[in-house]
Amino acid sequence: MKTSSRSGVLLALALTSCACRANNPGPRATADAPPAPAPPPPPPDAKPVAEASTDAAAKDAAPKPSPLEGEDFITQTRTLFRLAACGGDAPIPERFDAKQVESHCKDLSAKYAEYRRQWVDVAMPYIARLEPSGLPAEVVYPFGGSDLMSALATFPDATTYTTISLETAADVRKVDTITQKKLDAELALNRLHLGKLFEKIHSRTINLDIESKSDLPGEIVFSLVALAIYGFEPLSLRYFKFNPDGTLHYLTAEDIEGMEKTDLAKKKSAAETQADIFGDVELTFRKSGDAGAAVKTLRHVAYNLDDKHLHADPSLLRHLEAKGKVSAMTKAASHCLWSDDFSIIRQYLLDHMAWMISDSTGITPKVATKAGFVQDTYGIMEWPAAFGFVDNRNAEDMRKLWKTNPQHDLPFRYGYPDRDHHGHMMITRPASSPSP
Q1: CA 254 to each of CA 50, 177, 247, 363: distance values in angstroms, whole numbers, following the listed order
Q2: Of the ranges 3-7, 11-15, 17-21, the best mean pLDDT one
């Protein structure tokens, strides 16, 4: 935003984190990248032996959940949630200047309130009226940065959100060693980028890239900001790698230590190490203060989605395919889905999406119609903004789609505006489905 998921500035300079740079290798650039660690051996199938008891309640008691696989960085995540996202009311760690943090939070809280008033409170009910009942609870958001903010507003009832972009999640442990001076600078940078993000409702690649390489993990900070805005709290944070079949291997402390030593021996840069180890992250969360609330999951994946890289390493594709039917979204995606360099991820969406919402950077009309979809349009789209892969043929098709479809006002921006700064939005749905 997403995304990766995962801050925007002048729209004339805007480009998103969609990996449209087809010749740029990105985080998963080469086929000779270190393979994902082998998954741990499966636990024995034997069930735990219950203690002998005549107490009926004891007999009926459900087994305790298994501990999470991999290293859980929830302590660092909660600290970051409090310091950077201003979530919750936990005490500020003594090594930080509480007054500085509270000043940051006062400023950020005002930005949150304005964002809720101007966008969330307008967009959420509008989109909710368009969504059919029974949408899949799995959301796939390519080219989105770690844009959990938009995903939660668009699909509030979903349980799992998968955002995909070039940007890495980065190392949440940075919060353990950051100095007060650096923290002040990072918080100021976050406020600036979030202010731009709230204003433009999409993120630029350059801003997301800076955030992913800063002294705080920007992609994770953006996700925690989303939790704070919508009233959630973090429960766990783990890093993972894909096994070849698309299943997940959660990194243990030993995995991370070994990978760091390997990268050090190979004299890899800090950015390369971040991409190797801390690219993909899983964050679980629930409504704040409600132990009985449903647990939701965000997985942000750092991946180059062009055909070259999905051919070289199809593990992400295997993971997505295993989800079955999904709810899909994309916006501010530099028109990557228009390009045949991204035909694999485009075909994945056509094969697996039950319903998709986007701006004009979504599926083009000819491709959607051929695959058996219809498209409903909202707002005004005179001509696509010149971000990424904008060819005249597809641009003209998009213009005609908005001209021939029934006109619907759109009181908010969803991704890019058009060339003349009009907000617009598009729904792509099966032809057999009822009209919104």
Answers
A1: 32, 20, 20, 43
A2: 17-21
